[in-house]
Amino acid sequence: MKRENFPAHGGNLEWASERYGLAAEEFIDFSSNVNPLGPPPRALEAARAAVNEAARYPEPNAAKLKSALARHLALREESLVLGNGSSELIHLLVRCVAGSPGRRGEAARGRSGVTVVAPAFGEYERAARIAGVEPAFYQLLPHQGFSLRPASLAEEAARSRLTFLCNPASPTGRLYPREELTPALEACREAGGVLAVDESFMAFVPPGEVEEATMLGLLGEKGLVVFSTLTKAFALAGLRGPGWLAGPVDLVSRLEEAAVPWRVNVAAQAAALASLEEEAYLEETRAAVAAWREELADRLLDTGLFEVFPSRVNFLLLRLSRGEIGAGELVDALGKRGILVRDCADFRGLGSGYLRVAVRRPEENRRLLKALEEVAREASLG
Asked: DSSP class of residue 333?
């Protein structure tokens, strides 16, 4: 599902260049929510050096990186599988857990193959459909602040083989405490299903809040997988992270057997290994993003154009509160000025009128605000 004439994901500079007639490097990209500090310098150095090894194959299963990541996460190596970004792992998980022919008929018996807590990253739904599974949706509502109802979510999860939930959530930026997710996990374990929690943005959250939210400490023999990526926090989108998934050893073994070899290239492995040593960089990131986010949210409110939803991460969800211009028109008006923002019309349950903007450096945020002032002035003059 994607909005007509707009790409299904942010960060598509080639599309923007063709649509708005500007070179890719002329855009400030608020549609892609990666670390505004950019990659750690040591990670870039490691990636550049690794390119000299382009003639050789990478480790088939990125064993050295897996070992380092397991130490970093305080997990067993056997409980981890790596991928070319988290998107590859989402598709792999759906195929292995919910996509087999014998399971596709479960809908006729009142059980969903895949349930998505929405609004959500579109690859959960897309992966289900590609696997031949018609997904069900547990819809969170804007007027309720996208709050969860733990008991009803648990009931929905109990009827599904695989339930996807993002925490902190994209595109809303809301962080859910672990206690709100544990009823769904207990329901999955009792019913033989799997709760899949996407923690791709957890690195932007202060450590004290992470301790109250992450599900990693609840990993066990069944019922839960947690996945994430180095794409966001370390700004390694062009290297595709890599992504990682942690879960029960038997399920991870099945995923590893079903995955293609050599899926994490040598540059990505080298950059990831260097990034795992950059705790000071993450501390700097969390402090900077928090300050820039609050300043940007206040300034966006001051424009009078938007309702701004609270966020704990590196992006903000906005809802247009004035009728002079629609969301699609605003996206295009900004695009012509070299500013890319994410139209959220393709997020299930949001529809028209919603935008997502990444938190970037202060000078770039000021460019966004100036462009918004210009667009609003032109719209009011009509």
From this structure: H
Which domains occur in the chain, in start order?
13-30+280-381 (3.90.1150.10), 41-275 (3.40.640.10)
Burial of 103 (0-12, 13-18, 19+ CB in 10 A): middle
Handedness of CA 327, 313, 120, 183 (dihedral sign): negative
Q: 379, exposed or middle or buried, with CB in 10 Å at 0-12, 13-18, 19+? A: middle
Output the six-digit token pair for 379. Answer: 């719209």
| Cβ–Cβ < 8 Å for 187, 155 | yes
Own/partner pairs for 75-78, CB < 8 Å, 24+ apart?
75/216, 75/219, 75/246, 76/249, 78/249, 78/252, 78/253
**Closest of 110, 159, 105, 108 to residue 132, by C-alpha:** 105
Instruction: Tell which residue, 166, 204, 175, has the closest CA to residue 36.
Output: 204
**Across residues 322-349, what is the average pLDDT?**
91
User: What is the per-residue pLDDT across 72-117, written as a single tens digit (0 to 9) for each?
Assistant: 999 999 999 999 999 999 999 999 999 865 454 554 445 679 999 9
Give pairs for 211-214: CB < 8 Å, separation 24+. Answer: 212/177, 212/178, 213/167, 213/168, 213/175, 213/176, 213/177, 213/178, 214/178
Distances (CA, A) of 208 to 138, 225, 365: 28, 22, 28
pTM: 0.93
Find the mean pLDDT for residues 144-171: 97
Least confident range of 14-18, 193-197, 279-283, 292-296: 14-18
> What pLDDT sits at residue 60?
84
